[in-house]
Amino acid sequence: MTRFVCRDCGLDFDVNVPRWRCDCGGLLDLDFTPHLDPDRLAGRPATLWRYREALPVPDGAELTLGEGFTPMLPVEIGGREVLVKQEQLFPTGSYKDRGAAVMMAMAAHIGVDRVVEDSSGNAGCAVSAFAAKAGIRCRIFVPADNSPGKLGQIELYGADLVPVPGSREDTASACMAAASDCYYASHVYNPYFFHGTKTFAYEVAEQLGWKAPDAVVLPAGNGTLLLGAHIGFTELLGLGLIDRMPKLVAVQSANCAPLCAAFEAGAREVSQVATAPTLAEGIAIGLPMRGEQMLEAVRETGGTCLAVSEEAVLAAFRDMGRKGFCIEPTSAAVVAGAAEYVRTADADEVVVTVFTGHGLKVGDKLHKLAGGV
Amino acid sequence: MTRFVCRDCGLDFDVNVPRWRCDCGGLLDLDFTPHLDPDRLAGRPATLWRYREALPVPDGAELTLGEGFTPMLPVEIGGREVLVKQEQLFPTGSYKDRGAAVMMAMAAHIGVDRVVEDSSGNAGCAVSAFAAKAGIRCRIFVPADNSPGKLGQIELYGADLVPVPGSREDTASACMAAASDCYYASHVYNPYFFHGTKTFAYEVAEQLGWKAPDAVVLPAGNGTLLLGAHIGFTELLGLGLIDRMPKLVAVQSANCAPLCAAFEAGAREVSQVATAPTLAEGIAIGLPMRGEQMLEAVRETGGTCLAVSEEAVLAAFRDMGRKGFCIEPTSAAVVAGAAEYVRTADADEVVVTVFTGHGLKVGDKLHKLAGGV
Questions:
Q1: B203 shares a domain with B256
Q2: Quick check: A152 and B372 CB within 8 A?
Q3: Number of domains within chain A
Q4: ipTM score of the complex?
Q5: CA distance A208 to chain B (A)
Q6: Across the interface, do A321 and B66 touch by the CB < 8 Å criterion?
Q7: CB contacts, 8 Å: A69 with chain B
């Protein structure tokens, strides 16, 4: 029986009753037992729902916009071949659809009719789209100084925007306050979101013929993909579908690298660090709520944390473009991290990385970033 | 043996020698015999290259960015269920990748190292991306008054932009002049492009369990998808994989509807008509070069031509957004056409239509179109 479990005090809760943290304030995980028989996958649609026995959503509650089973293509990065999951090809333009599909399917299943979320970026888009698909009313809290152009996609999906004056933290606080009587469809707190992003690992393993790669290079902002991948590969190992864990390599912008700082310092927890603006806006998180968990995932798998410069991000962005791939700058940071990783990796390592979001996400700024005149 | 064949004089030419029209000036088709054994498809990647025996490109010459086999989802349109191919999920954000992938694969195969094309829209993006992937140098001719923001994606793919003063026709003329000593990667003239877009029909048939739908509602600008679908369904019928042709329904903006005018007048050829600006920019073609062929495809299949108003386009755009789909306004015109078609269709008809391009294509205009304030 699937239960919410508090990471701090171990208390557990019914998953059919909306809840986003423990009474003690601790973060929630899911106690869930996946099943999967690869022989039953043939003929199933090429979406993440092909792994339905491994998803904590009852049969028949699936919610889909056609998301998942993204292509994994060989791309030359850092002078050698790296396998890149094309997560920019999700319906809303980013891998966040993995988390939103599963989370909103469960929300709809337990009868939720209104949700709140705080994200003006890819998570906000994904939650809005799947809320629209489910017929669930959605309010997205955003900093009041957000540029209107950035919000067009969320508006199109019919979500109500709630501008909040002040800092990004003020926006989060306002959303949490609203979450006291409304389902909090959070890409940070809600463990169903991570049980959506874990399908990334299932797809990688299936696309490699049920093998684990040697290393997986992933973005590290709030850790939605890093932690999802960790859950997924751990489950696959438990199911006997892979025979070892891949190293998880976390990439941050050097201008906002709290995880890297904690990793290097040998710290157990992540602390706030000084930050500067970065092209990789999507992973510019000064203090990730699940930082401790992210450090554990990296260390436990023998991975590492890498910080990349603004110059490397822009160069990777343009290099991928010249190879035919239109990706968002945040995604280019991960590519730059992969290039850095393979510089010292064994030549025979199978390295997987990810294009996280579509370049069209940056709107009219694409022209300038592309080097246009 | 595959050959170019002139539609006007019947002269045929070697496909391994670059050529974009007949010596007589006529348009070229391909004389090509497809093969396909559906039993051999299981386990092949979910891209358009799964139909490789039906594609006029030699084995081993495939060129891929992971394109094709887009999901087909039921969507409520015009008060009933219509099946919608999610072609906005292609790598460059539109179905034009079908044509560009096949055309550029063939170009690379015959040793082409430079191409030209005239399109500042989705075709230009698709050709640029696959040229980048193939390592082929690409020049895109665009009207000099194009807004720079619109060209960012093409620039990112590394194509050289050639601004041409004057009208859209002046741009085409300049490109044709350049094509005298350079491969013309045209989405209008090059028949390989249409043998890429034909894979739309193969996917629809496979996704329906090797059956034809009753009607397919498609955009009609230059007819790249309409004619591709016609080739595809005709081939499938010849292969015995479907047992009848679906009706092909062509949709235009009422503000630019030369095909509709010719269809209603019973004319054999399409003539220039008066036009006005439209939200459906991607199908705003005043005089389609393959108009006669488009009329034949519609008439031969018992289809029809529909013109949709600007109000219907905007309403369909927003309606799809509220259902979780971010599509470009041109695509919304097709949805409006599908809504119009099903109003008088039999209740048991299986109707297929298409989201042609991603809403993120319109950049910062998305905010205003979405109804944002």
A1: yes
A2: yes
A3: 3
A4: 0.96
A5: 12
A6: no
A7: 46
